[in-house]
Sequence to fold (130 residues):
Amino acid sequence: MRTRVRLQRDGQDLVARFTPNQADIIHRVLTLLGSSDAANTSLTVQTGTDRETVTGLAARFAGEHARSFDMPLTVVELHTVHSALTAAPLLCLEGPHRMFSEQKFHELTGSFREHCDALAFSLVQETAGM
Fold:
């Protein structure tokens, strides 16, 4: 899986180029967080925004993408994507010691945690020089 997301500045916004696989992972983690039973305050702490914004952003990533595509995003939206990628593993803690379950994560997201971590890292790296 390609984990690098390319970003370009477009005025105040950014334009991100996502592969179909990246879009699917992002859609799944945003949907997972947006549909969780977490209180709105908890979701805002995790993602920096409210449930309506998270689910709206998830809808923008939904669908079958045949090839890579560009998506304009505000810095706040990009932060929400980054936060979702890093917060999703917290929904996969199990047992009395709340240990991370890779199996549960894969079942819920269709991906591995390291792919989400790499995507999140890529977003930070791409913005470093902007």
In short: The chain has one domain: 6-127. DSSP finds six helices and five strands in the chain.
